[in-house]
Amino acid sequence: MFEFPGWFFEKTPMEGGFTLGAKIEKKLADFHSEFQHIQVFETSRFGRMLVLDGVIQLTESDEFSYHEMFVHVPMNSHPDPKDVLVVGGGDGGMIRELVKYPRLETIDLCEIDEGVVNVSKEFLPFTSSGYNDPRVNIHIEDAAEFLKRKTEAYDLILVDSSDPIGPAEVLFKKPFLESIRQALRPEGAGLTQCETLFVFLPIIKRMVETGKELFPTVEYMNTLVPTYPSGMIGQLVLSKGGSYKKPVRRIPDAIGDMLRYYTPEVHEAAFHLPAFAKRELFG
C-alpha cells in the first residue's frame, strides 16, 4: 500500500475502483455528529474542503458550478417560483444562490444534521453567507418525515443529498420521491443530486425509471465539478409540469453578473447527454 503523508483520500463503499485525493495544509474541524463523521480541511489546491463520512462534499475552488446549476436552472425554468425547499444542503450553497432572487417569498432548509450547518457557518463563509436572509427558515429534521406533512406547499424542491449510503439513503427511494410529488404545486418540480454517468449509471437508471412512474416529465442534466468522481455530477429533474431544458425567462443582469458558471447557453447544454447515457436512460 502506498502512503502519502499530508494527503486526504476518499474512503467510501461507493468508490467504484478508484478514489479522489487532495493535499492537506491544515485540519480545521474533525468530529462525529449523531449521524456522520464531519471534517473540514484547508487544502493546498482547492481551498477549504468539507468531507462527510470520508467523502468530499464540496471544495472552495469549484462548489459554485454545482450550486449555481442546481438553483438557476429551475429558477429560470419554472413559470413563477415563490416558495422553495432545500433538502440537505446544510453547507448553505443552495441558500446562497436562492437568496439572490427577490421574487422568492420563502426559502426552507430541511437538514437532518445540525452539525453540518454549524460547521459550515464557522468554517465555510463562502457557502453559508445566505443564512442571514429573513426568508430563510432552517428545520433540523429528517426530510422524509418533514415532507409527509406538506401538500402542494412548494414550487421547487431541491434535494442536495450526499451519496445513497448512510443518512441520505432514504432520499433515493420511491417513497421519498412520492413525498416530493405530494409537496409540490401543480407546476412544480423537484431536483435531486443524481450521481455521475461514468461511474454510477445503474443508480441513475433506477432513479430515472422510478421518476417516470411518478412524474410526467423526467430529465437529467450534467454539471462539471472537478472534485467529484469523473469530474462531473448529475441532477435529476422531476417535473409535474413542462420541460426544464430551456430557460423561460432572461436571468436578471443583477444576478447574472454575480455568477461564475451558469449561463442560458450552459443551461441548455447541460441536458444534452452523451450517446451511451441517452440510450441507457431515455431510449
Protein model, in words:
The protein is of the alpha/beta class and 283 residues long. It has 2 domains: 53 residues, Spermidine Synthase, Chain: A, domain 2; 220 residues, Vaccinia Virus protein VP39 (Rossmann fold, 3-Layer(aba) Sandwich), CATH 3.40.50. 29% of the residues lie in helices and 29% in strands. The chain has a 7-stranded mixed sheet, with helices on both faces. Strands 1-2-3-4-5 form a 5-stranded antiparallel sheet, with helices on one face. Helix 6 packs across helix 7 and helix 7 crosses helix 10. The longest helix is centred in the last third of the chain and has 14 residues. The relative contact order is 0.14.
Question: What are the salient characteristics of this protein?
Answer:
283 residues; alpha/beta; Rossmann fold; five-stranded antiparallel β-sheet; 12 strands
If you average the pLDDT, what whole number results?
94
Poorly predicted regions are none
Q: Give the distance, in angstroms, between the N- and C-terminal Cα atoms.
A: 43 Å
Count of the domains:
2
Strands ordered across the widest β-sheet: 8-7-6-9-10-12-11
Number of strands: 12
The tally of helices reads: 10
What does the overall shape look like? globular
- Strand proportion: 25-35%
Instruction: Note the quaternary state here.
Output: single chain
What's the CATH architecture name of the largest domain?
3-Layer(aba) Sandwich
> What is the CATH class of the largest domain?
Alpha Beta
Assign the CATH topology of the largest domain.
Rossmann fold
